[in-house]
Amino acid sequence: MAVAKRQLSTAAERREVLIEAATEVFAERGFHGTPTTAVAKAAGISQAYLFRLFPTKEELYVATIERCYERLAATMRAGTEMARANGLEPLEGMGLAYGELMRDRTTLRGTLQVFAAASGGEPTVQEAARAGYGMLFELVKRLSGADDEKLREFFARGMLITVLAGMDAPNLDADWARSLLGGDLKDCI
Known about the structure:
This protein is mainly alpha-helical. It has a domain at 58-188: Tetracycline Repressor, domain 2 (Orthogonal Bundle). The protein is built from nine helices and no strands. Helix 1 packs across helix 6, helix 4 packs parallel to helix 7 and helix 8 (148-166) packs across helix 9. The N and C termini lie far apart (55 Å). The mean pLDDT is 91. Residues 35-54 bind DNA. This is TetR/AcrR family transcriptional regulator. Keywords: DNA-binding. Residues 12-72 form the HTH tetR-type domain.
Protein backbone atom coordinates (compact mmCIF):
# COMPACT_ATOMS: atom_id res chain seq x y z
CA MET A 1 0.00 0.00 0.00
CA ALA A 2 1.47 3.31 -1.08
CA VAL A 3 1.42 6.12 1.40
CA ALA A 4 0.19 9.38 -0.04
CA LYS A 5 2.67 12.20 0.27
CA ARG A 6 1.45 15.16 2.24
CA GLN A 7 1.68 18.24 0.08
CA LEU A 8 2.69 21.27 2.09
CA SER A 9 1.56 24.73 1.17
CA THR A 10 4.11 27.31 0.27
CA ALA A 11 4.48 30.40 2.42
CA ALA A 12 2.86 32.43 -0.37
CA GLU A 13 -0.15 30.11 -0.45
CA ARG A 14 -0.51 30.22 3.33
CA ARG A 15 -0.16 33.98 3.24
CA GLU A 16 -3.10 34.12 0.77
CA VAL A 17 -5.21 31.87 2.97
CA LEU A 18 -4.30 33.99 5.99
CA ILE A 19 -5.25 37.27 4.27
CA GLU A 20 -8.60 35.82 3.17
CA ALA A 21 -9.34 34.44 6.64
CA ALA A 22 -8.23 37.69 8.29
CA THR A 23 -10.45 39.68 5.95
CA GLU A 24 -13.47 37.70 7.13
CA VAL A 25 -12.59 37.78 10.83
CA PHE A 26 -11.70 41.49 10.84
CA ALA A 27 -14.94 42.23 8.95
CA GLU A 28 -16.85 40.48 11.71
CA ARG A 29 -15.03 41.84 14.75
CA GLY A 30 -13.06 44.90 13.65
CA PHE A 31 -9.37 45.62 14.01
CA HIS A 32 -9.36 46.29 17.74
CA GLY A 33 -11.87 43.55 18.58
CA THR A 34 -10.07 40.76 16.74
CA PRO A 35 -7.40 38.76 18.52
CA THR A 36 -4.73 37.24 16.29
CA THR A 37 -5.58 33.84 17.79
CA ALA A 38 -9.00 34.06 16.09
CA VAL A 39 -7.40 34.90 12.76
CA ALA A 40 -4.85 32.08 13.06
CA LYS A 41 -7.61 29.61 13.92
CA ALA A 42 -9.73 30.73 10.96
CA ALA A 43 -6.71 30.32 8.66
CA GLY A 44 -5.84 26.90 10.08
CA ILE A 45 -2.36 27.93 11.17
CA SER A 46 -0.65 28.55 14.48
CA GLN A 47 -0.42 32.01 15.94
CA ALA A 48 3.37 31.68 15.81
CA TYR A 49 3.20 31.04 12.05
CA LEU A 50 0.85 33.98 11.63
CA PHE A 51 3.53 36.21 13.15
CA ARG A 52 6.18 34.68 10.88
CA LEU A 53 4.11 35.74 7.89
CA PHE A 54 3.06 39.11 9.38
CA PRO A 55 5.24 40.32 12.26
CA THR A 56 2.50 42.59 13.65
CA LYS A 57 -1.28 42.64 13.75
CA GLU A 58 -1.14 46.04 12.02
CA GLU A 59 0.80 44.57 9.08
CA LEU A 60 -1.79 41.82 8.71
CA TYR A 61 -4.63 44.33 8.87
CA VAL A 62 -2.92 46.53 6.27
CA ALA A 63 -2.78 43.49 3.98
CA THR A 64 -6.55 43.07 4.40
CA ILE A 65 -7.09 46.77 3.66
CA GLU A 66 -5.04 46.42 0.50
CA ARG A 67 -7.12 43.35 -0.44
CA CYS A 68 -10.33 45.33 0.16
CA TYR A 69 -9.18 48.10 -2.17
CA GLU A 70 -8.02 45.56 -4.77
CA ARG A 71 -11.57 44.16 -4.80
CA LEU A 72 -13.05 47.62 -5.03
CA ALA A 73 -10.73 48.47 -7.93
CA ALA A 74 -11.62 45.23 -9.73
CA THR A 75 -15.29 46.10 -9.22
CA MET A 76 -14.78 49.55 -10.76
CA ARG A 77 -13.01 48.01 -13.77
CA ALA A 78 -15.75 45.41 -14.23
CA GLY A 79 -18.43 48.10 -13.89
CA THR A 80 -16.71 50.18 -16.55
CA GLU A 81 -16.58 47.21 -18.94
CA MET A 82 -20.24 46.41 -18.26
CA ALA A 83 -21.16 50.05 -18.91
CA ARG A 84 -19.29 50.12 -22.22
CA ALA A 85 -20.90 46.87 -23.34
CA ASN A 86 -24.38 48.23 -22.55
CA GLY A 87 -24.04 51.83 -23.75
CA LEU A 88 -23.98 53.32 -20.25
CA GLU A 89 -21.75 55.98 -18.78
CA PRO A 90 -18.75 54.49 -16.90
CA LEU A 91 -19.79 56.01 -13.55
CA GLU A 92 -23.24 54.46 -13.90
CA GLY A 93 -21.75 51.02 -14.49
CA MET A 94 -19.31 51.45 -11.62
CA GLY A 95 -22.14 52.48 -9.32
CA LEU A 96 -24.23 49.46 -10.25
CA ALA A 97 -21.26 47.14 -9.76
CA TYR A 98 -20.45 48.74 -6.39
CA GLY A 99 -24.03 48.40 -5.20
CA GLU A 100 -23.93 44.72 -6.11
CA LEU A 101 -20.60 44.29 -4.28
CA MET A 102 -22.13 45.80 -1.14
CA ARG A 103 -24.63 42.92 -1.05
CA ASP A 104 -21.74 40.72 0.08
CA ARG A 105 -21.85 41.08 3.87
CA THR A 106 -18.14 40.39 4.38
CA THR A 107 -17.15 43.05 1.88
CA LEU A 108 -19.68 45.50 3.27
CA ARG A 109 -18.66 44.98 6.88
CA GLY A 110 -14.98 44.93 5.99
CA THR A 111 -15.32 48.26 4.19
CA LEU A 112 -17.08 49.82 7.16
CA GLN A 113 -14.48 48.38 9.54
CA VAL A 114 -11.66 49.93 7.50
CA PHE A 115 -13.20 53.37 7.96
CA ALA A 116 -13.65 52.78 11.69
CA ALA A 117 -10.11 51.47 12.15
CA ALA A 118 -8.65 54.37 10.17
CA SER A 119 -10.17 56.75 12.71
CA GLY A 120 -8.72 54.79 15.64
CA GLY A 121 -5.34 56.45 15.90
CA GLU A 122 -3.22 53.72 14.26
CA PRO A 123 -1.04 55.68 11.79
CA THR A 124 -0.15 52.62 9.69
CA VAL A 125 -3.80 51.62 9.35
CA GLN A 126 -4.86 55.18 8.60
CA GLU A 127 -2.18 55.55 5.92
CA ALA A 128 -3.21 52.26 4.26
CA ALA A 129 -6.85 53.39 4.18
CA ARG A 130 -5.86 56.76 2.72
CA ALA A 131 -3.59 55.19 0.11
CA GLY A 132 -6.29 52.73 -0.94
CA TYR A 133 -8.95 55.42 -1.18
CA GLY A 134 -6.59 57.65 -3.16
CA MET A 135 -5.79 54.81 -5.55
CA LEU A 136 -9.50 54.11 -5.98
CA PHE A 137 -10.23 57.79 -6.65
CA GLU A 138 -7.50 58.00 -9.30
CA LEU A 139 -8.73 54.80 -10.95
CA VAL A 140 -12.34 56.00 -11.10
CA LYS A 141 -11.19 59.37 -12.42
CA ARG A 142 -9.10 57.73 -15.15
CA LEU A 143 -11.74 55.18 -16.15
CA SER A 144 -14.62 57.66 -16.18
CA GLY A 145 -12.98 60.87 -17.36
CA ALA A 146 -15.35 62.63 -14.95
CA ASP A 147 -14.70 66.09 -13.58
CA ASP A 148 -14.21 66.80 -9.87
CA GLU A 149 -17.88 67.64 -9.26
CA LYS A 150 -19.09 64.34 -10.74
CA LEU A 151 -16.40 62.46 -8.84
CA ARG A 152 -17.48 64.06 -5.54
CA GLU A 153 -21.08 63.08 -6.28
CA PHE A 154 -20.07 59.53 -7.21
CA PHE A 155 -18.00 58.99 -4.07
CA ALA A 156 -20.62 60.66 -1.85
CA ARG A 157 -23.29 58.38 -3.28
CA GLY A 158 -20.99 55.40 -2.72
CA MET A 159 -20.59 56.33 0.93
CA LEU A 160 -24.36 56.71 1.26
CA ILE A 161 -24.88 53.28 -0.29
CA THR A 162 -22.31 51.80 2.10
CA VAL A 163 -23.84 53.34 5.21
CA LEU A 164 -27.42 52.52 4.22
CA ALA A 165 -26.49 48.94 3.33
CA GLY A 166 -24.67 48.62 6.66
CA MET A 167 -27.87 49.60 8.47
CA ASP A 168 -29.98 47.35 6.24
CA ALA A 169 -32.02 50.45 5.38
CA PRO A 170 -33.57 48.89 2.25
CA ASN A 171 -35.60 46.63 4.54
CA LEU A 172 -36.88 49.43 6.79
CA ASP A 173 -40.33 50.89 6.66
CA ALA A 174 -39.34 54.43 7.61
CA ASP A 175 -39.77 57.77 5.85
CA TRP A 176 -36.11 58.73 6.25
CA ALA A 177 -34.92 55.44 4.71
CA ARG A 178 -37.29 55.73 1.75
CA SER A 179 -36.22 59.32 1.20
CA LEU A 180 -32.49 58.57 1.29
CA LEU A 181 -32.75 55.40 -0.74
CA GLY A 182 -34.76 56.84 -3.60
CA GLY A 183 -35.49 54.57 -6.53
CA ASP A 184 -31.98 54.36 -7.91
CA LEU A 185 -30.22 53.69 -4.63
CA LYS A 186 -32.70 51.07 -3.47
CA ASP A 187 -32.04 49.10 -6.64
CA CYS A 188 -28.30 49.19 -5.91
CA ILE A 189 -28.35 47.54 -2.48
